[in-house]
Amino acid sequence: MRIGIIIVCHNIENNINTDLFVKHLNKAKNIEFCFVNNASKDNTHQILKDIKEISKKNFSILDVKRYKSDNSAVRSGSRYMFSQFNLNHIGYVSTNFLNKKKYSICGLIKHIRTNQDYILEYNKQLKEDSVMKQTMFQSVFSITEYLEKSRTPY
Predict the structure, then answer these.
(1) From CA 138, how far away is CA 69, in angstroms rounded?
(2) Angle CA(60)–CA(54)–CA(74) in degrees, nearest 5?
């Protein structure tokens, strides 16, 4: 079962270890990544494009020209993912969360890759607990909440 992951990025140029990033992306199976560059003023967008060229894993990059809230950036990524891919589960995380917690984006990708089954179970449980049928945007779940509840280092 394929899962979509939206990662909202804003000025993370200095947090990206290109070699490690590519290594973890290439090992990811059944995961479709979408990086939403939220009006970064640094070189984040170019680094993501460079990584896309050298990576074996194809992933999407959306470039938002004017800064939006994380929720709006996630909506942009969600619309793209729903229109381009046939995915049963789409999760999101913002690099702002990573920066606050002093975690790395490479560690996040590795954690998502190695815990994909647990993340899917978490999302299935959320859907089962929901009383109402969810709309497209309501069905997009927070990887951040999963990470905080799992309490595993990443």
Answers:
(1) 17
(2) 20
Average of pLDDT values for 64-89? Answer: 93
Amino acid 151: pLDDT: 59
Question: How many residues are given for the chain?
Answer: 154
- 13 burial (CB, 10 Å; 0-12 / 13-18 / 19+) is middle
Which tokens is 7 given? 């990662």
* Closest to 1 in 3D by CA, of 120, 81, 85, 92: 120
Which DSSP state fits 31?
Answer: E
Question: CA–CA separation, 7 vs 9, rounded Å?
Answer: 6
C-alpha closest to that of 36 among 28, 44, 27: 44
Among 37, 42, 14, residue whose Cα is nearest residue 104: 14
Rounded to two decimals, the pTM is 0.86
46: amino acid identity, one letter: Q
Residue 138 banded pLDDT, cuts 50, 70, 90: low
